Amino acid sequence: MPKNYNMLSENLESNDLKRLVHPKLHVDEYKSKMGDDADVCVISFKVSGKEPSQDLVSFVEKGYDFVLDADVSSGEKADGDYLVFVELERTPNLPEQIISMMLDIMQLTDQNLTDWRFKYHKSTIDHDLTEESLRSTIILTPEKYHAKYDEEQEDLDSLKAAAGVKIDKQAPVNEFTENLRIAAGIK
After folding, report:
1. 128 and 41 housed in the same domain
2. Are 112 and 106 in contact (CB under 8 A)?
3. How far apart are CA 128 and CA 152, in angstroms?
4. The pTM is what?
C-alpha cells in the first residue's frame, strides 16, 4: 500500500480494480478546479464503472499528502467509462509523485507501469510512463508554465490581429456570465 497511505474504512485490496483502469494517463489535458493551471497539474485516466472510480478517488485522496484533490467525472463517457481526475501542485517533485502514486495503483489493478502510456496537454504523442519521460515532458514550475502558455496566447493574439479578427479578452455581458461573476464574488 502507499507510503503515505492513511487507513480507509472501505479497504481496497490487491487486484480489486483488475481490468477496470485503462492504461493511459492524461496530463494537463483538463483545467484545474482547485486553482490556476500554472500552479496545479491535473492528471486523468479512465475507469470502467462509477463505483470503482469512486473507490479509486477515495484511495488517492486519502492516501497521499501531495494530492490536492481527486474527483470522478459527473457522468459517464460515451463508452460507459468514467474519468478520474487528480490534482497535484506543479513542482519539480511532480514526476516522482505521479510515479509513486501510479505504482501503488498498479497493486490494485494487477498492471505493470511498463504497460502504461501518457499524453501531455493537447499533444497527440504517447510517451512511456516513466519518471524521466514525465520530467522531460511536463512543465514543472508555475514560472515556466506562464512563460510557455502566456507566450502562446500572445502569438495567437498577434495572428488574430494580423488577420483582422477582433481580440476580445473580456467575457461578454449576459445573464450567464453575470451569474458566474456573482457566484465568484466578482463585480
Report:
1. yes
2. yes
3. 26
4. 0.76
